[in-house]
Amino acid sequence: MTTIAAPLPRGRPRGIDLSRPVMLGLAAVLCVLIVLPVSQLAWHAVVDRDGAPTLENFRRLWSDPAFVEPMLTTLTLATSVSVACCVVAAPIGWLVARTDLPFTGVVRALVMASFVTPPFLGAVAWEILAAPNSGLLNQWYRSLTGAGTDEYLVNVYSMGGLIFVIACYTFPYVFVLVSNALDRIPSDLEDASAILGGRTWRTAARITIPLALPALLAGGLVAFLQAMILFGSPAILALPAGFHTMTTKIWSLFQYPPKPGLAAAAALPLLLITIVLLRGQQWLMGRRGYTVVGGRSGRPRPTALGLLRWPALGLCLAVLACSVFLPYGALVKTAFSRVPSQPVSFDNLTLQHVRFVLFEFSGTRLALQNTFLLGVLSATLGTGLALVVAYLSGRRAVPGHRTLAFLATAPVSIPGIVLGVGLFLSYTRPPFVLYGTLWILLIAYITIELPAAYQQLQSALKAVHPELEEASRILGATRLQALGHVTAPLLRSGVIAAWCFVFIGTMRELSAAIMLFTADTKVISVVIFDLNESGDLGAISVLGIAMLLITFAVVLLVNRIPGLGGWRPARPGG
Amino acid sequence: MHGTKFTRRSFLLASSALGISVLAAPLAALPAAAPVTPQLIEAAKKEGKIVWYTSVDLPLAQKVAQAFEAKYPGVSVRVERTGAERVFQRIGQEYSAKIHAVDAVNSSDAAHLLVWKREGILAPYVTEDMAKNYPPEHVDPDGMFASFRATLSPIAYNTKLVDAGEAPKSFKDLLDPKWSGKLVKSHPGYSGSTLTATFQTARDLGWSYFEALSKQKVMQVQSATEPPKKLSLGERAVAVDGVEYVFLQLIEKGNPIAIVYPSEGTPLVVGPSAIFKNAPNPNAARLFHSFLFSRECQQLIVDAGGLRSFHKEVKDKEGRTPLAKIKLMKEDAEAVEKQVEEIKSKYTRLFKV
Predict the structure, then answer these.
(1) Quick one: A360 and A218 in the same domain?
(2) Residue A536 lies in a domain
(3) φ and ψ at residue A477, rounded to 5 degrees
């Protein structure tokens, strides 16, 4: 950016501004990323096999119970997960961000651990824990109560089980958004309320909660959409129970003989739901100003919990037991057990799974390499793209910024598996022959993770008042310079968080990868899914633990690099 | 429009499946058997690797790969293991995008080989063992494929959860209400073995059997290698299907499982292997193919894997019921090929997934 600045004559308010062409170029990239596969899908939804226009796909969709039932299931699932996540994550987010809760660092780290855990791995772990007969929890229940062999406490192969397991790995989305928002609310307003005689709870109800509400609603929305488009967990837990969600149904349509047209049609209701929800959120939020970080602000003041500190910590740990302690315990146990359902004993102890995964299984090394490479690349490119789009739409810098914002959030409504097919259809013919290479996976990951990164950066950007940029622009900086020198540093923690979002998202991604991989471009999530379909729990556990260690290592490293800052947002002005 | 090509291709595959049977009387004799020459080994080493798509249970597939690597150092095997129906879909998807990643394939759905042969994507290759030690009906007359392995799809139960006297003796026994909620079953949309078994069972017992079975609250898993694993966990008491070789492996490792060969007959699943015309590592593929059909490898998959072999010199492992003493259902790959779509859609309608 300094090279752009160099030729500028001093004292002139505007030089040759390359910002606009650069931004328009990126906008074009975005269009190709999203519009191309979606238009391919739309085309396939309305033509038959010979290319003649037809509405047959939609007629089947609305009349065949095999499609209507999964749709209702999916809506119930997504709503329940969203509500559950908000109920759990909002209190924890508040406790961590605004109170004197002990060990907040530990709680944050553990929430991050559940976020890093791929949902399909969590689902496998909960199979080990809560399968009705062999599940460890049910075995303990039977041995404690003396119940009969057919009785069980919990059954993970059920709608309730599915909601629970998905919520365990979706609530961190809500937590991160809520706690970041609470972190950003300065104490000025709360102080004002206190000065005017408001007590702690009244201040919370009138000031803190309303200011955190946009983040909570955004979190609830993300949770809803995540649950709606999740593929791995339903494939692992719903299919054995004999029911489909929309994603598993769509996936089944790509089994031989593939029916991409029907699948594309089946994806459109999901797209519509998302558009309506995003519009609703905009309408709800758009009428109020939430800019709280300006050129000045005060440090937040923690609320004293008093005697409630320890019960509050207990509540956090109970939630985290479900998403971290129990599942990880189950995975570790399974990794070293001959028969996972039998108790830990010397006879049952084995290193055979470790040996198999690390030394015998020929797919391990390549999958690790591919996954790591794709994770780093997607995170870097995806965050960059999301930052520019968030800036353009947040500051209304180019005509059509609304469309850009829509495009950046649109992929959230496209189930990964459907996007996978859209990409497959788009990139298997000249001039873009990318199928069979890592590029097509990179495109898939960036597209899929863009909404999360965009949401993150957009909500961070909302809290940075444009006055600082305006000051820099008045002093002669171009938009890109203002973004680079003023806004981005203020957003530093948001950028790092977005990078981590995308990196972790890439490690967790399964549904697009499963459509796009070939022998040479396999990633770990696909390998784990393959292993689950043949019931190799020991190998999954070893591979899953290895994958988690890598993810943790990378995320910690990124957060520790000097100059990049930490996971907690730095407070401008503080 | 490339997108249409994807669809049309699958359509062609499906519609040609209804066409004329491919195994018309062979016009020419079997191609001459190719020995493993030092030149072949050298050329294979130069290529350095071979990519094997297979549906055989992963640990066993890795054992085969390791045995090959030990015998021919310098040639590494990459195993791509998934259900046979997935293998078929993946190869179709890759080939329609002109990606030739696969060298050798082994499927538990023999009908796949008929399709690939007709599409002309296989390479003829007859190894010495095929010519000398295999019954002619297990080697394709044009030398395009041969029966690498066979197994059965029996019933089995967990002996800790079910007494021998109580155990089911036949497929029809599984319809007893006492088994409701206690059964586990694999999926014909994933597993070639299960597709083959579903075809044979539906042909011999009628779809009414599956209709009644679908009301038994069956736990539906994907791979035919998984019901054995679910039994050993104790997650379900009885497996409706699942491959005999994994049951045998688990029994011989001391798991509380017993096999029942049902009185109606047990489905027989033959799993042929082939190599591809456009294999990226053609010499390594030939060498690997030769190894697969060697006595050494066949004895390995029988002893360590619990599979059945058609190799004349391979001996059954002691303690296992010989094939000759089991009442078998008749295998019929050509009929399977014609009905594959119907089987999958009927099954999905009954079992909901």
Answers:
(1) no
(2) yes
(3) -75, 145
pLDDT at B29: 77
> Nearest C-alpha of chain B: how many angstroms from A328?
19
For residues A239 and A382, state if they share a domain.
no
- pLDDT score recorded for residue A285: 66
Write out chain A residues lying below 8 Å of B190, CB-based. 255, 533
- Is A33 within the bounds of a domain? no
Span B178-206, average pLDDT: 97
Centre a 10 Å sphere on the Cβ of residue B167 and count the other Cβ atoms it contains: 17
Burial degree of A566 (CB within 10 A; 0-12, 13-18, 19+)? exposed
The per-residue pLDDT for B277 is 97
- Measured between beta carbons, which residues in chain B are less than 8 angstroms from residue A73? none
Asked whether residue A413 carries a pLDDT value surpassing 80, the answer given is no
A246 in the same domain as A356: no
Cα–Cα nearest to A77, from A246, A239, A232, A222: A246
Average pLDDT value for chain A:
85
User: pTM, whole model, 2 decimals?
Assistant: 0.87
> Residue ranges of the alpha helices (H) in A254-321?
260-286, 309-320
Range of the domain at A102: 63-259
- A138 inside domain: yes
A366 interaction partners in chain B (CB closer than 8 Å)? 78
Cβ contact, residue pair B234, A51, below 8 Å: no
Can you tell me the mean pLDDT for A299-305?
74
pLDDT for residue A352: 92
Answer whether residue A473 is part of any domain: yes
Residue B245 identity (one-letter amino acid): Y
**Domains identified in chain A, total number:** 2
Cα A555 to its chain centre, rounded Å, is: 15
Contact flag A257-B10 (C-beta cutoff 8 Å): yes
Residue ending a domain, choose from A211, A230, A259:
A259
Cβ of A363 within 8 Å of Cβ of B78? The answer is yes
By the CB < 8 Å criterion, does B299 face chain A? no
Examine residue A431 and say whether the peptide bond preceding it is cis (omega within 30 degrees of 0): yes
Residues A397 and A542 in one domain: yes
Domains parsed from chain B with CATH numbers: 32-150+269-321 (3.40.190.10), 152-268+340-351 (3.40.190.10)
Q: Domain ends where: A218, A233, A259? A: A259
What's the rounded mean pLDDT across residues B87-107? 92
Q: For residue B69, how far is the Cα from the chain centroid?
A: 23
Is it the case that residue B158 has pLDDT exceeding 70? yes
Instruction: Label the pairing between strands A432-433 and A428-429.
Output: antiparallel
**Looking at the predicted structure, is the pLDDT value of residue B39 above 50?**
yes
What confidence score (pLDDT) does residue B253 get? 92
Q: CATH code at A146?
A: 1.10.3720.10
Summarised one tens digit per residue, pLDDT across range A15-25 is: 566 777 877 78
